[in-house]
Amino acid sequence: MSELDLGLKVASRRLLWRMGYSTRIDVPLRAFGSSSTPTPGPRTPIESYTDLDVLGVTLAPGAAIETAIVDCKTGGSSAISRMFWIRGLSEFFSTTSAYMVREREISRGGRQLATRLRITALTSAEVTALETLHPTVLPVDHLPLAHLFDRAHVATVKERWAEQDRKLKSLLEYREFDYWIYDRHLNLIQMVEHLRGVRRHLDGRNPQHLAILFDCAWLYLVAALHAIQAIRGVHVSNVALGLKEYVLGGAEQVREKENLGSLLAELRREGKLPDTVSIDPLPQYFPAMVDLFTRVMRRSDTTITSLQYLEYLASATMVAARTTTADGFGTAHDDIAAKIAENVVAFLVEAAELDGRMLAAARTRLFGSGAAPAPPAAAKAPTSRKTDPHVEPDASPELDLGISDPPAP
Predict the structure, then answer these.
(1) Secondary structure of the chain: what % helix, strand, coil (to 5)?
(2) Residue 223: Cβ within 10 Å count
(3) Last residue of one domain, picked from the residues 113, 131, 149
(4) Is residue 38 one of the residues assigned to a domain?
(5) Got the DSSP string for 188-240?
């Protein structure tokens, strides 16, 4: 990341928040590959694609997920050649809106080409002017929420991410790189498995580990919104069936895996397969996933706010700030949105068998002080942890969302 561009990135983030998006700064794209030409020394299987500066996520009426990308440059790179790059990146992400932000003036020819390529071309001054056309009830210009749009704060947060324990490398690389390249339906399982893989190294008393969980919850909720969009199109009255088809890659894949399961069951009955071998193509936590998705689907009006809460908490907690969503959002705080965010965090903690204190600490950040249910028994706290002074006591009010439990799949 060029630090020279960071000011434009945080200004673009603030603009997107005013427009009703939740955002992510710096999304690098890469894939695993190999070179056919031998080279001296160790070879890396990593093949870089490119990166985008700011990604925005929101929901349109009908719960259709929409995305926006922003390319920010303060240097003298050719605006015209960059526009073709932005259009290609926009196609890759299937974005609804694409923006190009430059510090210096954009030529008349460049603006004409931007119109042809369906790109909004802006100078930094025009970003500020455009903000005035998008009033918001959110206190984006007041602390502590305004930290999200402060260059120094964002730079510090990125430094903290770069300093994380190498024992968490597999999870950190997945959330930074592979999440964006995998087929979307794979992320519903991959996120849980990557968290499970490092669960012994995640400490509920460490604020930076809590920030990692909030960030993973943001990514998981985005993946859930993509899944829900697909489910609404084919099985809106049967979430369990729709989610099963989505997770397994389609109706045909479901039939193939069910036939394989029947064959394996027959082998087990004949004593040719140990009882310890799982024949279910779905994970054990699938019923909990159905419950979570049903809750998110029925409160889709709050999910972008839930994403904003998770984005805010991931940023603030990474620098050990003692804050809650009520502190950041003031009178605009929505308890239902906080509850949906907590549902996502709780699902990840239980499904990945994380330290139960992470859920207790997350509830404190989402709801502030008050009575709270005990952490689930399945989420066991690890022993021999280093104490951290920044995590507050558990707290989470019980909220009636008007959501009944779905039938078992």
Answers:
(1) 55, 10, 35
(2) 20
(3) 131
(4) no
(5) HHHHHHHHHHTGGG--TT-HHHHHHHHHHHHHHHHHHHHHHHHHHHH-TT-HH
* Nearest C-alpha neighbor of 240 from the set 231, 249, 251: 231
Per-position DSSP letters for 37-99, written without gaps between them: S--SSPPP-EEEEEEEEEEEEEEETTTEEEEEEEEEE-S---HHHHHHHHHHHHHHHT-SEEE
Helix axes 187-197, 207-234, angle to 10 degrees: 160
Asked whether residue 365 is assigned to any structural domain, the reply reads yes
Radius of gyration of the chain (CA): 22
Same domain, 255 and 315: yes
Q: Which domain holds residue 188?
A: 137-409
In-domain check, residue 201:
yes
**pLDDT value, residue 243:** 94
Q: At 79, which CATH number?
A: 3.40.1350.10
Note the pTM of the prediction, 2 decimals.
0.85
- Sheet with 97-102, strands from edge to edge, namely 22-32, 46-60, 64-73, 97-102, 120-123
pLDDT in tens, 39-69: 444 445 556 667 889 999 999 988 899 999 9
Residues 111, 257, single domain; the answer is no
| Euclidean distance between CA atoms 346 and 352, whole angstroms | 10
User: Do 348 and 398 fall within a single domain?
Assistant: yes
Where is the domain boundary, 106, 131, 156?
Answer: 131
For CA atoms 35, 36, 40, 41, the dihedral sign is positive
Domain count, the chain: 2
Q: Which of these, 284, 300, 317, lies nearest to 409 by C-alpha position?
A: 284
- Map tokens 């279910």 to a residue: 280
Residues 202, 256 within the same domain: yes
Mean pLDDT of the 100-120 span: 91
Q: Which residue would you say has higher pLDDT here, 383 or 173?
A: 173
